[in-house]
Amino acid sequence: MTRKEFFARVGFGAATVLLPACIAGLATSCSSDDSGTSGSGSSIPAATGNFTVDTSTGPLATNGGFIVMKGIIIARTTTGTFLAVSSSCTHEGVTLGYEKSGNVFVCPRHNSQFTSTGTVISGPAPSNLKQYQTTLSGTTLTVIV
Ligand code: FES
């Protein structure tokens, strides 16, 4: 086998293995942003200034949906108001989720729960989340950092 043939086979083999993983969202290096809904929050870059989100598409277009952007979890309640708090659990930094039925933020690792304004309901999280104010203009939501 020539060197060229070897690399052709290895390259094809790697693509065969990695492509389905990327499609399934299992390879984190394939992700282009941090708008996912769960996972470790330790590598999410924090917001350094106000930013906007289009609420006409994606999870925020629906009551009960939420996204994580720039270290902040933004949720749309079942009544259509928007919430924004820091997305990292104050226990070990895991990215939080939002449970629309209870209007609470929940940590998937050890089940800490926070109110809609970020106050700890149950631990082991030792402290509250930071709450951010938002303003809505049309379908553009501004998160004030
Ligand atoms: S990491 Fe969130 S409760 Fe432990």
TrEMBL record:
Pfam families: Rieske. Residues 1-23 form the signal peptide. The keyword Iron-sulfur applies. Residues 72-143 form the Rieske domain. Keywords: 2Fe-2S, Disulfide bond, Iron, Iron-sulfur, Metal-binding, Signal. One of its GO terms (cellular component) is membrane. PROSITE patterns: PROKAR_LIPOPROTEIN, RIESKE. InterPro entries: Rieske_2Fe-2S, Rieske_2Fe-2S_sf, Rieske_Fe-S_prot_C. The keyword GTP-binding does not apply. GO terms for molecular function: 2 iron, 2 sulfur cluster binding; metal ion binding. This is Cytochrome b6-f complex iron-sulfur subunit. It comes from Flavobacterium glaciei.
